[in-house]
């Protein structure tokens, strides 16, 4: 038996999230069916995190136990022939038996992208939230440092969350702007959030609040006030899912055996 780990990239537009659902139309369902077609095994994969319907991943990490003798160098090539064009696996490797793609992760980074300006980008419309009026990115940027550190993020967590604790540690938050596209007269705003874990809708609620700050509906100081009060009702709306992407998951390299 081997514990196999892979990186999965996907466009989540057509799927009901990552985790298996009764609809059988999730990333996990598709991956497990492809592995079953390849090996004849019915396995359950473990992921580094659950993404909602419409959310994407550049670097989702999965692992699963298999008795298949397929060489590591053949796994991705074989699976990609069975997967739809909007899901790709890469970087197959064998990991320690106790490796768990979620519990073993040191940190994760999510990226949320806003397209701000006159016209949306036709070719990136499924990965960007379009905002047709200007945003004050300086105010948005100045509101972010208060999120860094260990905090109770109840204000930025869906009331549907079932977690026992809303305390999480954010290591870094940044906002970057792309150059103005002269044809579209718009530009992309990328918000990166890196932490040891995330609550249900946490990044999307932070972004929804940031957008209101950028619109001038809230002051830049509002972010720290909302964080301190720990009341979801005081934060902004939950931003649309299609602008969110699981960007990176990092691990201790000693857990990767080959």
UniProtKB/TrEMBL annotation:
Record-linked PANTHER family: PSEUDOURIDYLATE SYNTHASE, TRNA PSEUDOURIDINE SYNTHASE-LIKE 1
Domain of life: Bacteria
Family annotation (SUPFAM superfamilies): Pseudouridine synthase
GO molecular function annotations of the record: tRNA pseudouridine(38-40) synthase activity
Enzyme Commission identifier(s): 5.4.99.12
Pseudouridine synthase I TruA alpha/beta domain residues: 8-101, 147-252
Role according to the record: Formation of pseudouridine at positions 38, 39 and 40 in the anticodon stem and loop of transfer RNAs.
Gene that produces this protein: truA
Binding of substrate, residues: 110
Protein name, entry field: tRNA pseudouridine synthase A
Keywords: Isomerase, tRNA processing
Pfam families for the chain: PseudoU_synth_1
Subunit relationships: Homodimer.
Catalytic activity: uridine(38/39/40) in tRNA = pseudouridine(38/39/40) in tRNA
